[in-house]
Amino acid sequence: MKSASLLRLIGVSTLALAIAACGGAPDNAEKRRPPMGVGATAAASVDFAPRLVALGTVTPLQTVAVRPRSDGQITAILFREGDNVRSGQALFQLDDRAARAQLAQARASLASARAAAAQARGDFARAEQLVGKGFISNAVLDQRRALAGSADAGIAGAAAQVASAETLLSYLTIRAPVSGRTGELGFRVGATVRPGDVEPLITVNQLSPIAVRFLVPASDIQQVRTAMAAGALTVTARTQGELSGDTPPLATGRLAFLDNNVDPGNGGVAAKAEFTNNGVVLWPGAIINVILPLGQAAPRIMLPEAAVQTGRDAPFVWAIDKDGKVAMRNVSVAGRADGKVYLASGVAPGERIVTDALTKLKPGDMVRTRDGSPGKPPRNAQASDPVTAVAG
Question: DSSP of 241-299, one letter per residue?
C-alpha cells in the first residue's frame, strides 16, 4: 500500500517537472536569441546645396526642313551631306534657263517702257510750249499729259515684272535658311522637285547655340521659380549616369525657359537650358543629365540611399541606441545626390543608422555591428564610414 502511494507521488512529481520544463523553454530560448547582425553607418554632418537632377534631350534651337519654292530639276548640289553650312549659303541649283529667259523679257519690256515714257514726256513738254502760242488746244495738252502719265505707269509695271522674274529666278538657287549642320540628302542631281513634296531636300540643324529640354518635377517647380527670380540660373550638362566626379562637365549653360503650364500627364513643367556648345559636344537627340542648383549650401545629415525607407506617413530610418536596440525614426529629406540622402531633421550627427537587413527589423530588436559592440561604433570608423554587416 505504501509502495503504491510512493509510486503515485513519484509519477505526479515527474509530470509536474515535465510541464514546467515545456512551459519555460520558449522564454529561455527567446532570452538566448543572439542579436541580429546588420550593417550600419554613423550619421555625418556635411554642407549640402539642393539641386535638381533630370534627364534632358538635346534639341536644336532651329531645325529647318529645306524644300523648293518652285518646280524644277536639280542640276547641281553645292555641298556634301553632313557639311556645316552658313545662313544664305547656296545648297541646290535648279534648272533656271526658262526663268532667265523670262527675266530677260521683263527687262526688255522695262527698257521699252522707259523709251516710251521719255517720248511721252517730250511730247507733253512741247505741247505746253505750243498751247501758250495758240498752236494747239487745251484738249490736246491734256491728252499729252495723260499719255506721259500712262508711260510713267508703264515703267512701274515693267519694273514690277522684272522684280517678279528676279524673285522666281532666285527660288531656283536654294540657300541655307540658318547656319548649322546638314543631314541626309533627300534628292539627287537630275530629280524633279516640287514644293508639295513630302520629303525635304535636306534638313539643317542649328548646333551652336543649342538647347536641352527637360522636365521639372512638381515637387521642385516652386524652388526653380524662386531661384529664377533671384537671377540667372547656371545649368550643367553631364553624360547620362554621371552626376559628379573629377571629369569636367560636357557643357555649362543657363536656364532659358520655363513653360507657363503644368503637364496634366506627369504634373511637371517643361524647361529648356541653352548652351553655346563650343566644340559641338552636345548632339541633337542625345540623352544627358542636367544639373540645376536650387539654393545655397547648408549643413545636412548625410546617409546612404539604402538607409532611408519610405513609410506610410514619412520617410524613416532605423536608429541604434546605446544599448544596441533599434528604433524607427521619421526623417525629413532635404535632397538626394550621388547615391546619398541628405536629411534636414530626424537624425543627429554621430548617431548610428542601420543600412541593410532593414526588412527583418522591428522596434526594440537587438543588433550588433562589426566590432560586436551594441553601444559604440567601430574604433577605426570615421563618422561617414559604412560599417560592414556581420552574419549572426
Answer: T--SSSSPPSEEEEEEEE-SS--TTTS-EEEEEEE--TTS-S-TT-EEEEEEE-S--EE
Q: Write the CB contacts of 239 (distance below 8 Å, at least 6 apart in sequence).
A: 250, 288, 289
The alpha carbon of 369 is separated from its chain's Cα centroid by a whole number of angstroms, namely 44
From the list 271, 281, 280, 286, the residue with the least C-alpha distance to 235 is 271
H or E segment and range at residue 333 = strand 332-337
Q: Are the CB atoms for 389 and 356 separated by under 8 Å?
A: yes
Neighbours of 223 (CB within 10 A): 16
CA pair distance 63, 181, nearest whole angstrom? 10
Helices and strands counted in the chain (H then E):
4, 26
Give how far Cα 377 sits from Cα of 43, 354, 368, 387, 392, Å.
11, 12, 10, 8, 17
Residues pairing with 271 in the sheet: 214, 258
pLDDT per residue as tens digits for the range 344-383: 899 999 899 988 877 778 888 888 875 555 544 444 434 4
Q: Which amino acid is at 366?
A: M
Between 51 and 23, the more confident residue is 51
Residue labelled with grid coordinates 554642407: 47
Q: Which domains does the chain have, with CATH numbers?
A: 36-47+298-387 (2.40.420.20), 52-61+209-293 (2.40.30.170), 96-171 (1.10.287)
Per residue in 263-309, pLDDT (tens digit) is: 898 889 999 999 999 889 999 999 999 999 888 888 999 999 889 98
Is it true that the peptide bond before 284 is cis, omega within 30 degrees of 0?
no
Report the amino acid identity of residue 234: T
